[in-house]
Amino acid sequence: MSLDVEHLIRRYGHLDGKELLAALIKGDLAGRVAVTSSFGAESAVLLDLVAEVDPATPVIFLDTNELFDETIEYRYQLERRLGLSNVVVVRPNEEELHLAEELWRDDPDRCCELRKVRPLARAVAGYEALVDGRKRAHGFEREHLATIENGGGVVKVSPLANWSAAAIEAYFVKRNLPRHPLVASNYRSIGCWPCTRPVDPGQPARAGRWAGKGKSECGIHTLSLGLDGAGI
Ligand code: SF4
């Protein structure tokens, strides 16, 4: 990785949201950055900010083959509404799908590795920085998230790290953004259908992910995606 993460943090660490995106996508990271999006419950906020800066920014959408139909439909809806012109769909290959089968039942870490981590690592190999929609308000491993971090071979940028649930909601209202269809059924963090449940009022948004499995992250944000030594 040729980008100097410490330099980026010193120069842009005080920014967030659209200001941070503009500074990086139009500036230091021009042509070297992609956005990753699940097109989930809160994704419209980051994608709207990205579209305002540059709708041709690459947006990587990881289709694990286990997504809700509603997520696939929502992806097309947001793409049209926001004018995103460079959504790249990434899928596991045949071998990974064969190996993954129904591993989500007994070995969700391995399932996530095959359906998410490996395909995404291949897709982002040409980028030096990845933008994501993580927020400290999600809790769990995200409580101490910074807006710019060294992701182990790639710079991780989280422009919404400081945003509260109320700020996200206010932005949806202000921009009249469409909601993921499952939000109306109390799904507040939406991934693959076997590992996503609705949450009760007052529960953290991500409490519905891998409920009862002792797992809170899929690995795409916590493992090195720089491919060095990844054997992918
Ligand atoms: S979220 Fe569940 S189904 Fe999706 S890749 Fe991970 S373990 Fe498999």
Automatic annotation (TrEMBL):
It comes from Paramagnetospirillum caucaseum. PANTHER family: PHOSPHOADENOSINE PHOSPHOSULFATE REDUCTASE. One of its GO terms (molecular function) is metal ion binding. Its EC number is 1.8.4.10. The keyword Nucleotide-binding does not apply. The active site is at residue 218. It is found in: Cytoplasm. GO terms for biological process: hydrogen sulfide biosynthetic process; sulfate assimilation, phosphoadenylyl sulfate reduction by phosphoadenylyl-sulfate reductase (thioredoxin). This is Adenosine 5'-phosphosulfate reductase. Pathway: Sulfur metabolism; hydrogen sulfide biosynthesis; sulfite from sulfate. The lineage of its organism: Bacteria, Pseudomonadati, Pseudomonadota, Alphaproteobacteria, Rhodospirillales. HAMAP family: CysH (MF_00063). Its cofactor is [4Fe-4S] cluster. Belongs to the PAPS reductase family. CysH subfamily. GO terms for cellular component: cytoplasm. Residues 33-198 form the Phosphoadenosine phosphosulphate reductase domain. InterPro entries: PAPS/APS_Rdtase, PAPS_reduct_dom, Rossmann-like_a/b/a_fold. Binds 1 [4Fe-4S] cluster per subunit.
